């Protein structure tokens, strides 16, 4: 059943990779500020492939946000973007078989394994969803992954109504997964500059800071603090925690947010080495 909520009582909690879990496309965050500096409140229209009305059927594959024709003024909200239809199934973009689905399932984490679980009190939003990915998977404003043939997503919600999302992307072989992991590294290397350019474009102070917090073989973690632009992120001051791990032919991505409007930041990224260790097992 579709879920509709008032635009003044939600923040678009963007699930990593621009995917939307059925019936959990939005998270209620009552009594919080609706707009960040220079931005209008979240719109009820679909934005960057996300809905404030959750679909009753399997969502379409993730697509990136369309760039506005001209830079909006500081008083304007980012333009609404129409959702693209799911691509037709082709041999190059087919769902994984039984072996592939088993590999995706083997990477799944539980709420108890998530970072900062004592303060966040994570809970699963729904059972994991396995679906066919689109030609592009957008993790955030900085990272786009291509070539995945399988996709499993698990969403979580904290006691503060903030999201965490695990996306496991299956590839035809280990070499393809390694190339995808390197694409994540490249995107995150430039993420501070990318985020600041986006802030300037939308009339915000360029306060984004991105740092790598841990590495372990083909595994890495980052922290981004910034006043976010509405679209792929909820608007406002926040910290984003991003993790990427290659496990055989699977790229494991984990992302969780701390929104200043929801609660004081409680997570210490010094724990990210332990998070990566858990994701690589």
Summarize the structure.
The chain has 281 residues and is an alpha+beta fold.
Q: Note the main sheet.
A: 8 strands, antiparallel
> Would you list the SSEs in sequence order as H and E?
EEHHEEEEEEHHEEEEH
* Count of distinct strands: 12
The termini sit apart by 37 Å
Mean pLDDT across residues: 74
The oligomeric status of these chains comes to single chain
Radius of gyration: 17 Å
Share of β-strand residues? 15-25%
The global form is globular
Total helical elements: 5
What low-confidence regions span 5 or more consecutive residues with pLDDT below 50?
A: 1-95
Write up this protein:
There is one protein chain. With 281 residues, the protein is of the alpha+beta class. Helix content is 17%, strand content 25%. The protein contains 5 helices and 12 strands. The protein has helices at residues 98-106, 117-120, 174-189, 191-201, 272-280, and strands at 10-11, 27-28, 123-124, 129-131, 136-138, 144-146, 150-157, 163-170, 209-215, 219-228, 236-247, 250-259. The strands form 3 sheets. Strands 3, 4, 7, 8, 9, 10, 11 and 12 form an 8-stranded antiparallel beta sheet that branches. A hairpin with a 3-residue loop joins strand 9 and strand 10 (219-228). The longest helix is centred in the middle third of the chain and has 16 residues, at 174-189. The chain is globular, with a radius of gyration of 17 Å.
